[in-house]
Amino acid sequence: MTTAGVLKFLGAGLVILAGALGGGSAAAALEKRLSVLEELRAALERLRSQIEYHSAPLAAALDAAAKPCSGESKELLLCVAENLRSGDGAPAGEAWSRALDLVGSGSHLNVPDIAALRLLGPALGASDRKDQARHLESMIGNLGVHIREARDRSAKYALLYRQMGVLCGALVALLLT
Amino acid sequence: MAETLSRYEDGDLLRLSEIRVRSGLPCTLLIGACEVPAGNGVPYVVSTEDVDRMFNLISANSVHAFEEELRNGYITVKGGHRIGMAGKTILEAGRVRTIKHIRSFNIRVTRDCPGAAGPVIAHLIENSRPQSSLIVGPPGSGKTTMLREISRLLSNGLPEYGVSPQNVGIADERSEIAGCYQGVPQNDVGPRTDVLDGCPKAEGMMMLIRAMTPGVIITDEIGTADDAQACVEASCAGVCVVASAHGAGKTDLMNRPSLKRLVSPGTFGRIVFLSCRRGPGTVDEICDGRGGTLVSGPLGGAL
Question: What is the mean pLDDT of the segment spanning A27-44?
């Protein structure tokens, strides 16, 4: 094989690899969204327990709820706790909203996920334990809907994106060669 | 508001006992016996936003963590200071569930007053043993401050009167004596003192006796028949009880059926009557358990 042929072969391989990576990354984003939502739901369940049974102040409850988490969900909860501690008496909803703006925008969550999470803010810390548990229960249920949608989407499209990535890469490589 | 307070001299701040914050009205400070408007020349008028932010800071954005306190109309904050609140009460089955739309605060500044029990402590000891004592006085006469000081003294021991250090249990229903914040006493109540914070007095006294074997039990503002019964039972269990009650003198005390029975069978070995005649902490009279005068005042005063 000539040098030009080798280069063409290598180039085509790189294009296919790039396509596969693109497809893989799109599929991973779907799976990551699902895992962030699931982790957030578990964290809100811990937050409910901290509030309902331990009567923990909100910042401490958020710290405790964030402990077993990792990545974006941990970052979000710790950011709210930090906003609460450094706030000058601003309502908890403001701290929650600012954290969502900061962490949510660069996360794997989509706009409807963030909009749904935003609804919890004004209720946080503003009522008794029974009412807090009710609000958190409602948000956990709401997240469940988003999780089901994310799971369906991931099951439907993750494999498709991966295969499409490879096939698109191969198609481009064929067209170029 | 914090900036306004920082302009006051240390001497004034040491005598500061209350800060009144009311939405739409000037903030006022009670320094010594004088009420002065807060502000640098111009009185500081409190806005609705100030009040809302203040509530968020006081409650640490956690109304759920202060449910019981809000039902009673106050929150104890770090430092043991008690902040009373007024607004719209929400009722549930005829009982206050919480307060919403809070528009007034009364910040009661707490500080240790070493020596507050000086005029009375010698009279509360007999044969090197502290006597069960009832401290009676009108609101603001220094009953709680005296209880706190008695707790500290008995917990440390009083070698000059032959009293060894005592295990003290405080049933602090309103978080006023020890001023607990998240379970930690913010006031010095002595090194051998256990505090049951936020627990109903009668139940708390029994819990302390069962669990902590105290030599002395201290509690504030007894008023109901259950409280009185718990005092009798604690006394019968061989525990020295030091308690306070509202009242302006012997007549007031004898007119309250629940407290009257505490005097007649001699549950308390001493009854101390306080007033504000010479400022908070003025001792008008110290009686024995049956109401006979031991010491006539006025003694001490202004803590």
Answer: 93
Domain encompassing residue B125: 118-299
* Interacting residues of B56 by C-beta distance below 8 A, sequence separation 6+: A87, A89, A90, A91, A92
Interface predicted TM-score (ipTM) of this complex, two decimals: 0.82
Alpha helix (H) residue ranges in B67-224 = 67-72, 118-121, 143-156, 201-212
Q: What average pLDDT score do residues B12-19 get?
A: 82
Report the Cα A142 to chain-centroid distance in Å.
Answer: 15
Instruction: State how far the Cα of B195 lies from the Cα of B215, in Å rounded to an integer.
Output: 14
> Could you tell me if B157 and B96 lie in one domain?
no
User: B289 with B149, same domain?
Assistant: yes
Question: Would residue B113 count as lying in a domain?
Answer: no
A vs B, Cβ pairs < 8 A, gives 59
Closest approach of A155 to chain B, Cα-based (Å): 40
**CATH number, domain containing residue B122:** 3.40.50.300
What are B184-216's pLDDT values in tens digits? 898 899 999 999 998 899 999 999 999 999 999
Distance between CA atoms of B195 and B249, rounded to whole angstroms? 29
Write out the two tokens for B52: 């809302």
Are residues B135 and B103 part of one domain?
A: no
| pLDDT recorded at residue B303 | 63
Average pLDDT over residues A2-11: 85
Q: Which residues contact B151 (CB under 8 A, 6 or more apart)?
A: B168, B170, B177, B189, B190, B193, B216, B218, B242
Express each pLDDT in B231-267 by its tens digit.
888 888 889 999 999 888 878 877 887 777 777 666 8
Running DSSP on this structure, what letter comes out for residue B18? Answer: E
Chain A CB contacts of B61 below 8 Å:
57-59, 84, 87, 91-92, 95, 124-126
Q: Which residues pair with B272 in a beta bridge?
A: B135, B286
